[in-house]
Write a structure and sequence with these properties.
The structure holds two protein chains of two kinds. By secondary structure, chain A is an all-beta fold. Chain A is 0% helix and 50% strand. In chain B, β5 and β6 (53-54) form a beta hairpin. Classes of the chains: A mainly beta, B mainly beta.
Chain lengths: 122, 108
């Protein structure tokens, strides 16, 4: 069974940092682009970042560019999102998500984790 | 950036009835559109991709149609487990992926 499990969320003060992780299982992790999508409380879905299957290329939403860094460790089937200079508006549930197609950088998200809550507040 | 809109914001339907949800893109996205279902406290679940292809394990009562800028998700006969929020997503002009604001389907 394909599965994604996020961890690392929590409460952090504005300006602080947090590192989210996503452990993948049940599929060939190194063959798929991976992403983070977030959802503020009571709001809709917002794409945050995507990393290519190879890990060589990353893309970020303008709202997080320069503050967030996405990386992957294919030896451990793990995705990491380093979040720095956090703002109140970054408060959301962060979902790790797998692209449907092999290798392609874009497409639908067919597997989602359960999400991890990040709260930025003083 | 392509802006996605969905209508209606809320759709009240009785069990067994048909539900029709609309999604519109501000620019042409070809058939690069997906639909998701999200229940409270759960992650989104992929229903449809490529505008009309059902994802693995999705019941046949869910169908998608459209191309270009206008898309429709139809649930032919609503079951109790179908009451949820539905989002569309375009992945044609990327980055960024953009999602619609969602349509909540609730019990009439």
């Amino acid at each position: 069974e394909m599965q994604l499990v996020e961890s690392g969320g929590g409460l952090v003060q504005p300006g602080g940092s947090l590192r989210l992780s996503c452990a993948a299982s049940g599929f060939t992790f190194s063959s798929y682009a991976m992403s983070w999508v977030r959802q503020a409380p009571g709001k809709g879905l917002e794409w945050v970042s995507t990393i290519s299957a190879s890990g060589n290329t990353t893309f970020y939403a303008d709202s997080v560019k320069g503050r967030f860094t996405l990386s992957r460790d294919s030896s451990k089937n793990t995705l990491h999102l380093q979040m720095n200079s956090l703002r109140v508006e970054d408060t959301a549930v962060y979902y790790c998500a797998k692209r449907l197609g092999r290798v392609v950088i874009t497409g639908a998200f067919d597997i989602w984790g359960q999400g991890t809550m990040v709260t930025v507040s003083s | 950036e392509i802006v996605m809109t969905q209508s209606p914001a809320t759709l009240s339907v009785s069990p067994g009835e048909r539900a029709t949800l609309s999604c519109r893109a501000s620019q042409i996205v070809s058939s690069n559109l997906a639909w998701y279902q999200q229940k409270p406290g759960q992650a989104p679940r992929l229903l449809i991709y490529g505008a009309s292809t059902r994802a693995t394990g999705i019941p046949a009562r869910f169908s998608g149609s459209g191309s270009g800028t206008e898309f429709t998700l139809t649930i032919s006969s609503l079951q109790s487990e179908d009451f949820a929020v539905y989002y569309c997503q375009q992945y044609n002009s990327w980055p960024p992926d953009t999602f619609g604001p969602g349509t909540k389907v609730d019990i009439k």
